[in-house]
Amino acid sequence: MESTCRLSRRSLLQAGAGLLLAKAFEPLPARALERSGRRILATPARAGLAGPGHAKTDVWAYDGMVPGPLVRLRQGVPARLIIENRLDQETTVHWHGIRLPNPMDGVPGLTQPPIKPGESFAYEFTPPDAGTFWYHPHANSLEQLGRGLAGAVIVEEGEPVAVDRDLLWLLADWRLNAQGEIAAGFGNRMEAAMSGRVGNTVTLNGSVSKEEPMRAGERVRLRLVNGSLARVMALRFEGHRPVVVAVDGQPCEPHEPEGGRILLGPAMRIDIAIDMQGQPGRRYRVIDDFYDGLSYGVTELAYSENPPIRAHPPDAPLSLPRNPLPEPDLADAERHELTLQGGMMGGGGMAGMGGMMGTGGGAAWAINGMSMTGDGHVGMEPALTFQRGRSVVLRLRNETAWWHPMHLHGHSTLVLSRNGAPVPYRQWQDTVLMAPRDTVEIAFVADNPGDWMLHCHIMDHQMAGLMTVLRVA
Q1: C or N: which end of the chain has fewer Cβ atoms within 10 Å?
Q2: How far is 171 from 207, CA to CA, in rounded Å?
Q3: How does pLDDT run across 382-398, given as a tens digit for each residue?
Q4: How far from 21 is each of 163, 165, 220, 308, CA to CA, in Å?
């Protein structure tokens, strides 16, 4: 059920130079949940976010860990996960990207009662898809996620994937003050109308990373998760050619990312395969250069001195087995348009909000002229209602000056086009990153009944109105 997500440098150096491909591709051990379920505690804790030599930071955490324990599930195997709330406020857990029953979706009021302090809730579902997912609160989500409540979920394929190592990097962004504590000021209205709460410290699996050990000749599957509140990332792997093999947990046609940069919005996951062809003993930087003039080093790939474990990359294919996603019938699909509006503009004014910008309402954003603020509540009226089993094409128009990772609960969507150009490589996503003025078409089969959130996963934007509900009846 749990993994440290890391391999120590000593362990790596001890690996034999004559490692055989057959041995390297042995399957991961099965970790199916026991019927009694896995209990995870949401609790205050301390974490070394800034790394060795720095004071620990007060956080909120799952099982006292940042990130929370890695949850490993098996595709098609029933899971039971019990969340116990030891915080002094209500919480829930959203199992982001997993196509599960609506009562298990974790939206307070809309799909379940919130978990009160001292109480617990059992989430029961059978994951239909293998891939990389994550879990986080959907109650007071801006602060609870911003104080550390997040963890990764890996749903393992039925058959092992041909790689030497399967690694997870859960990247997160924090705003720390001079004392190393999480800075106050969640819900700043000016930030909410712009790019959101972007921090000043980025961690990899819970701490600032100086190096990640590698071995020449190995093939690595690297699962990237952006658990930030607002930071968009564009990762470059110096001296390497990563191949994208899955987006948001769903396999795609293997391809190198455009311009060599892996664009990762908040809540997105991208799996890459890398044949480690660097020189033994060398170090190669991993850089995030999304924001102009603000690039920084995420970590370094630190190669051991050992000779390569093989002379050439393995012949095993990079493609992953497809998940059982229903294929939308584009010829018979119903079509709708949703327009993202609002936010602070270059001249300092607001736009597209129909007069809803008074400070009392707290709304800075809208979808089709309507704002839903907060995390979800009882009685939220759907913007659209679909008949169960119907194919749907949604045209999302971003009329704002800001980036928005738009997340649809309960479904994965096939991304058809961006600004009129077809999107290649058959990419299915539950979180679609939209640039300013973008228009994106997505398609899906509305096969999962219930009321489902569609919202921006820059959490300030969601809390300030960039959220709606889609109903499958």
Answers
A1: C
A2: 9
A3: 999 999 999 999 999 99
A4: 9, 12, 13, 13
Number of residues assigned to the chain: 473
Report the relative pairing of strands 219-226 and 120-125 from DSSP bridges: unpaired
- In order of 213, 347, 441, the CA distances from 305 in angstroms are 11, 55, 48
Dump strand ranges (E) for 205-295: 212-214, 219-226, 233-237, 243-247, 250-255, 262-264, 269-275, 283-288
**Tokens 């659209």, located at residue:** 384
Q: Which residues pair with 446 in a beta bridge?
A: 390
Please give the structure tokens belonging to residue 254. 């293997």
Query: Can you read off the two tokens belonging to residue 322?
Result: 């497809």
Q: Average pLDDT of the chain?
A: 89
Cα atoms in the 13 Å half-sphere on the side-chain side of 97:
30
Q: Give the CA-trace dihedral at 398, 471, 247, 296, to 10 degrees.
A: 50
CB 307 within 8 A of CB 221: no
The DSSP call for residue 451 is E
Q: How far apart are CA 129 and CA 323, in angstroms?
A: 5
Split at pLDDT 50, 70, 90, the class of 31 is: very low
How many Cα atoms within 13 Å fall on the side-chain side of residue 86? 15
* Type of residue numbered 348: G
Which pLDDT band, with edges at 50, 70 and 90, does 36 fall under? low
Q: Which helix (H) or strand (E) holds 61?
A: strand 57-62
Q: Nearest Cα to 25, choosing from 437, 317, 329? A: 317
- Cα gap 283→274, rounded to integer Å: 15
CA angle 156, 320, 434 (to 5 degrees): 95
- pTM here is 0.90
Closest CA to 168 of 220, 208, 241: 220
Tokens standing for 355? 């007069």
| Cis before 405? omega within 30 | no
Q: Structural domains in the chain?
A: 9-156 (2.60.40.420), 165-303 (2.60.40.420), 330-472 (2.60.40.420)
Calpha distance 374→65 (Å, rounded):
26
CB 303 within 8 A of CB 216: yes
Give dist(CA 185, CA 203) in Å, integer.
Answer: 20
Nearest-angstrom CA–CA distance, 19 and 305: 15
The pairing of strands 450-456 and 334-342 is unpaired
Token pair listed for 356: 């809803």
